[in-house]
Amino acid sequence: MGSGALEITQTLTIPDAELIERFVRAAGPGGQNVNKVSTAVELRFDIAQSPSLPEPVRERLLAKRDRRLTDEGVLIIAAQRFRTQDRNRQDARERLAAFIASGLTVPKQRIATRPSRAAKARRLEAKNQRSQIKRGRSQKSHWE
């Protein structure tokens, strides 16, 4: 059903057997064509059970808060941008590859810092100036 293994990087490929493609009718405009031809693609990839993914990558992908990810760890990508089934399938595979590639990079650890004394002083001075401006607005004007 697929078009070969999906290559993410030179070292990481997802075999076609792990991808489940389902062709459905697309929604939206398209006239008669959209009503009779199943051009939209629903691509499913089980991240939680995939033997192809290294464990740290799997954990990073499952930790993402993506609405396309089910509670069971299955990523569902729906592609219906194009008129042809082949182009939608290619689009879905590209989006899956991009999603998996985003899990390959290790996020940089944040180093906790505190604002300096001068930065705190600048902040308080700005707040004080702002309050002076607002206080000036509330007092009666001189021509009444």
From TrEMBL:
Start and end residues of each stretch annotated as Disordered: 110-144
Please, one GO biological process term? rescue of stalled ribosome
Q: Which Gene3D superfamilies does the record match to this protein?
A: 3.30.160.20
A GO molecular-function annotation: translation release factor activity
Q: Which PROSITE patterns match?
A: RF_PROK_I
Q: Spans of biased composition, class Basic residues?
A: 132-144
* Annotated InterPro entries: Pep_chain_release_fac_I
Name the domain of life this protein comes from.
Bacteria
Every copy of the Prokaryotic-type class I peptide chain release factors domain together lies at 25-41
Q: What is this protein called?
A: Ribosome-associated protein
